[in-house]
Amino acid sequence: MSHATHQAVTTAELAPAAWEPLLDGVSIAVPAPGADVSWDLVEEPGGPSTLWLRADGTPIEVRFSVPLGDAAGYWHPRVGWHRTLLADWEGRSVASLVDGHAAGCLYDHSGATLLTFAAVDPVPETTLRFGVSEENDTYVVHVHLPASDGPHRLLLVPRAESVAAALRVLRTWFTAEVAALPVPDSARTPVYSTWYAFNQQVDAESLEIQARLAAELGCGVLILDDGWQRHGHGRGYAGCGDWEPDGAKFPDFTAHVARVRGHGLRYMVWIAPLLLGPRAACHREWAPYATRPATVPGAAVLDPRHPEVRSRIVEQCVRLVRDHGLDGLKVDFLDQAMVYAGDGAGDVGAAMGLLLADLRCALQTVRPDVLLELRQPYTGPGMAPYGNMMRSFDCPADATANRVRTIDTSLLTVGGAVHSDMLLWDPAAPVEAAVRQLIGTFHSVPQLSVRLDQLPAGHRQAIGFWLAEWSRLRPQLLDGTVEPGRPDELYTLVRSTADGVCVIDVHSDRVVPLRPAGQHEIVLVNGTPADGLTVAAGEHSRTVDITVHDPRGRIIDRCRRVLTPGLHTVPVPSMGLATLRIREGGTQ
């Protein structure tokens, strides 16, 4: 990267480069003073086009420029809440195997895309600069790629009607190219997690009570989070590194795991294998390999570029699974490896690729159907070989954030099932508060994290109903064609369709268009505070049988209606659900 790139406040101040037309109004420039750089675009009908870039073993900068038109927002895997149009002096991102993906999508106010791209290689540390060029009235994306022995490849998707449609093209391409970790059915069943329910105050007896109740409600997996290990107390990570069970909390950990599995649950344990804290017995031995502090409190980060570190982590993880009969691991804080990024001592993404490949191979030897949970931001296509449960980032009790983050994650997830952050709510609150959390995660695998034995009967009744409905609709919610709308509108109307069934969940006061062609069932989920949803029927009249459930799942109305073209109110209560079954021959 040139010195000018570091100093320039806006992209207009960078050294000029020759722009050439690329695709659908997008222009490209590849400045490379003193280097022999060439590029060409190979277009593939029905799929992404491939931009080949050859730079003779030197770092390369690729600049894209798009006329502003009616641009509304820019989505990328680490977008967070900044999903509108930033200025180019503000838009920055870093990507690596365990830190997002070098990808992005610019879209307009109709939802249609203006630019969609993704790097083929997910591993190298890649920096991106993006935003509105105030001087040129354009939107720009600059991708800085490190030196490579071979050509770089970027995928570009032709303009599509929505961000989701454009990213489906990328997912389809990566699915064909990536050898994803197999996904057992248990990775696609509701989970009980201990974190918000217990934090670190876990013990065998309490968890076995929760396991029985969770299994009765339809959960298939239990995840024991932080606190099971020796020194696992007090917020922070100063005790991390030994990964041995706390004998006071779990006098016989292996027997405890077996008892929980006896309820029909698979058992996973949390581990943060890169973290090394000063209270760990192994600290003195391994401190020379952990020279930088973590961005989480109390620990340093083991440098995965050392083969000794990689071997130790693999051995620890395999020992846990083998010795205690575990079904898998929740592998946390892999993105902490990025504290070593850019220090000149080797590519962190490449080292993490070696570590994760070794870990996958070793764990599958012990447990062929191993479960591995990964978490934003390391859930992109490059992580598909290493995890089969892709969880959204922490957002306790925030149903909106859970909805947004799970959908963000799903837009580029390949292979694994997308999971929600754990669900937390106040047991003293009305049942609607619990249901709101479940509805917020409807398009992902829900993870519960409340003390089930302390919930009111109405809450347990509601959980049972909604988990049963989620399981019934799983083909639509996890595998169907999902259209969530514009990212900057926070996905307030999400439509999932498969096998003639359409699920629509609504989270703001808006008219819901019904598109019943080819469908025999429409499920309306009312995530708004208002009772009743306004729907817009199409040009043909349809006769439908409507069944309405209240938040607890009780049937409160059954009726037959003729939906003539125009607006209609469906009497589904707030946090309730209505099923519309379209009668054969009911079109007029």
UniProtKB/TrEMBL annotation:
Record InterPro entries: Aldolase_TIM, Alpha-glycosidase_related, GH, Glyco_hydro_36
Pfam families for the chain: Melibiase
Coiled-coil region(s): none
SUPFAM superfamilies xrefs: (Trans)glycosidases
Name of the protein in its database record: Alpha-galactosidase
Organism in which the protein naturally occurs: Streptomyces coffeae
